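Purpose: get a first structural picture of the assembly so the mutagenesis plan has something to point at.
Setup: two entries, given in the order below. No constraints added.
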Amino acid sequence: MSVEVRNVTKQFGSFTALDHVSLKVESGELVALLGPSGSGKTTLLRIIAGLEFPDLADATVLYYGEDVTRIPASQRKAGFAFQHYALFRHLSVFENIAFGLRVRPRATRPSEEEIRERVNRLLKLIQLDAMAKRFPSQLSGGQRQRVALARALAVEPKVLLLDEPFGALDAKVRKELRRWLRQLHDEIHITTLFVTHDQEEALEVADRVAILRSGKIEQIGTPEEIYDRPVSPFVYDFLGNVNLFSGRMKDGEVVIGDTSFAVTDTERVAETQTVAFVRPHDIHIARTQNGAHSFPAQIVRCHAAGSVATVDLERLDDRVHFTAQLSKEEYQQLQPKTGEQVFVQLRNVRLFTDDYSI
Amino acid sequence: MTTSIALAPSLQHEAAPRRASTAEPPGVRRLLIGVALAFIILFLVLPLLFVFVEAFGKGAGYYFQALSDPVTWAAIKLTLIAAGISVPLNCVFGLCAAWAIAKFEFRGKSLLITLIDLPFSVSPVIAGLLYVLVFGAQGWLGPWLDAHDIKIIFAVPGIVLATIFVTFPFVARELIPLMQAQGKSEEEAARVLGASGWQTFTRVTLPNIKWGLLYGVILCNARAMGEFGAVSVVSGHIRGQTNTIPLHVEILYNDYDFTGAFAVASLLTFLALITLGLKTWAERQNEILHGREQTA
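Result (structure tokens, whole complex):
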């Protein structure tokens, strides 16, 4: 009971969009495909919808166990919401939503009454009942995206596929709409796959997140799993801001400058020269040296607007810049000044074996 | 997102003085408008009026008598036949070509686009001559056609062929940019919603391009009825048989029947005026359909 792709490869000329990708979305699950542009996430979604076909003969797309690899999009019964909505501009909101029902062959087409009833129910669901007669051009971006979702849902799809559903909206509407999508999904429990390049969106909305890089799935897991236990520097970097410290391995600890720090997942690292990854909120700043576990740095810039304060620093030994994030309270207590020398402690220091440069 | 929000006021701020600085002083403005107006009156409006003045020069009776002449009627009929065949054909061809060019990637696509424009760059007389060289008595296919008793040159088929050639690009040219701008996402949406290929075409593609298509058809029709050069070469100027309206006007004029020539010419002038009106209307409808999308 799931939507699944196995061994899917897709090339556009010499560019490999997808490289032997397999993915399984459980029934009723909401999965995010997260990756930078060009990572193949949209192509994967389009292959699942039947808008593109995989290159290799042994690639399969399964809807609830049924092989749909060679079935055209029009017969797959998937719901697809396009990044730029692709609403029919010559049809009203009502007719846009009714489209999928009206094009059915006579035998399976609902009666005019049933169509009206179903469309009205969907209009209520997307809270646009008053806009039924409007044309897409008379709606805001957020309203258009909701109409696009209702249009996709009208045909009672087996799977809902959303391509950057909030990509073209401004930040505020985006937040509202993704909360709405999550609520909607909790109500109707439709198997959903959505593409995004916004890690915050993926982590907030999805049950599981698949991270794509150059046509391959780098990691898949719950938001907590991938945020707390990234398998690669790429995933680590993609999920949030990151500071890099070059250092040496010594006795299972990483030595940065003259200071050693404990490391999460030490067994992975054997080499002596290494790069340590630290999130800005895992950097602690103090005026006094606290034992051996801190190194000196100079404050380059402070900015305190927003929910957290950001402090740009520079190491005194190799002059490398890094960024720390402080809570408002910490910032108020410390009152850091530009040019001041402080001591820096690191928490949750992470090392990766494969070479990856950010 | 945040950058665009931050940028917006500064852009507006910049735009305002720039617009003011490019505005010309009132004297220059009046001069430019005056020059443009003078040219339009001298070269467009006056000749247009002159056509009607000449046409009705000997009274309305003579005007209608000139039009009801059987030879004139034959010319009108032939023009309608030529346009009636070439416009639908070019309509179908234009749709196919524009669809292929806008929605698919294929080898030779740029060559096809170039070839569609060929009739614009080739002189119509040359186009007519090409058909004479191919289908004429001394042409490549001449002996074969002669043997099978098929007449193309100096007959109606030749006129239709020449008309198709010169009107070839009109519909396609109009639709290609329109369909390219629309992309294929609405068609894809229709497909995913379960629409068949034909349903997608009739319910999504056609409604989106109908005004552009009409616009192309209007221009195509105007050219088909007004074409002189290419048709003149292949027609043979047989009165009452292979003369279209423009050719008939020339014959009447050469016969010093100025009033008759202008009376028939006034038909083409009417056609031009109707075309202009329809064209403006179709253009506006198209803007309403597609412009709304952008302004919202």
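The first strand of chain A starts at residue 2 and ends at 12.
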